Fold this sequence. Notes:
2 copies of one chain form a homodimer.
Chain A: E1 7-14, E2 17-26, E3 31-39, E4 48-54, H1 63-67, H2 70-77, E5 80-84, H3 124-139, E6 142-152, H4 154-165, E7 173-176, H5 186-195, H6 208-214, E8 221-226, H7 232-236, H8 238-248, E9 253-257, H9 264-282
Parallel strand pairs in A: 4-5, 4-6, 6-7, 7-8, 8-9
Antiparallel strand pairs in A: 1-2, 2-3, 3-5
Amino acid sequence: MVSQTPEQIGTNQSFGGQQLRYKHQSAVLNCEMTFSIYLPPQAQKGPVPVLYWLSGLTCNDENFVHKAGAQQHAAEQGIAIVCPDTSPRGDGVADDPDGAYDMGLGAGFYVNATQQPWAEHYQMYSYILDELPQLINKEFPVDGERISISGHSMGGHGALTIALKNPQRFKSVSAFAPICSPLNCPWGDKVLSNYLGDDRHTWKYYDAVELIKQAQQHLPVLVDQGTADNFLTEQLKTELLVSAGQVADFPIQIRMQPDYDHSYFFIATFIAEHIKFHARALL
Amino acid sequence: MVSQTPEQIGTNQSFGGQQLRYKHQSAVLNCEMTFSIYLPPQAQKGPVPVLYWLSGLTCNDENFVHKAGAQQHAAEQGIAIVCPDTSPRGDGVADDPDGAYDMGLGAGFYVNATQQPWAEHYQMYSYILDELPQLINKEFPVDGERISISGHSMGGHGALTIALKNPQRFKSVSAFAPICSPLNCPWGDKVLSNYLGDDRHTWKYYDAVELIKQAQQHLPVLVDQGTADNFLTEQLKTELLVSAGQVADFPIQIRMQPDYDHSYFFIATFIAEHIKFHARALL
């Protein structure tokens, strides 16, 4: 796979470091993609570890950059943060036929689609795990051996499943209000039946609850979930993750946060603790 | 003036406090207005001091709420933050005839307009100084005797001019990249000639540089300005504020911040220091 050099399309000084934005041609996704990267001041002196952040439904690479307030804490710890987009993009990319927000554009679900019309572009699992890190490691002052991953909602599902399937590649994983089990919620039913087909056995490779049960290696896991989150009962199913961890004797730290909802105000409140959690594994 | 009880239209838990949003009928502006208020956790135990934040051109009450990361620091210090909108709003409210971003909707410039078609609604100076604080003091657990004010760009101009004209009402004032002298920049020429008319003597009451020169009372003033700000040379004219402070022997703290631009990344980087600056005057 040959990666094009990414083209810088944005730069802002932030907490002594730089908040940057790039576009590049993705071979895996077969389209042009945009990502954001925060380089802390420490990156001027040598390679820094990297945290990948996967956003939720309807987001692109910028929501976390503008709303989470993470740069302050990344600058304190000396950690870069990479924010990919949430799906392939562009005129030729398939979208939900009804224009719904929960499938298609902005809703890649971090899987490799096998079904039509999705398979041509919707390969977000490979993009996040392989293509994008290869590009980041080549083009930026980061240490490709020290990588962690986090995300929100659909991106929490992405972070957990990608890290649990590849524990040798990540030092730690965390999630805010993750979709814990696509096998057991309406979002999963709709999207995975479209992207992966009706054989639900194939869905297990993208289900954090199933992967926890099978995990051979126990990397550090932190999950925060607000109790006032409107999606908690029907879509997120945090209780399945709790019980899976207990059954598998996998020590996951899952914190129920009273009164917090599904918004970026929730993420902003606890992002400092997540970055410190990852710093303990990365530094 | 009788203020309607404001109607809550948004609530999010944030850093142990609450980020709230309200709409209300403004008698002064003669239209419905929206504002946001952050109540820190300390407000559950009794009245807290208040910082008013005035946003810049094109903004409404939400930009600062989502992008500045101020709640963390307001919660640490126990200070409420009120974010008004930047102009009157609604179908009957005059706007720039060409739809330009720098006059009309989103560009009230925190003055009381005397000219048509603006005078009917564009009374932002009185709204910010009188009507909104009266409503806030009545409806929320805040201490109306401990008020400070800050803002960005057009809002920095608003904060400086309102506080300098009313030093007995504010404990401190700060600004990010303020428009220092509407008398001496294209934005000022265009907007104040429309809102106030061609007699430039009337503009002096809304010009921070002129007000600094005439100030009898020296309240604490902090200004941050990025050196990579695209508006610095033509519109902001920080150097006029520096020299006015020197001529008037008014000790203004003006800090030029290398490489920072006009964006919210700049504000987010230094908002903690501004809130601590105000806390020293308020607590």
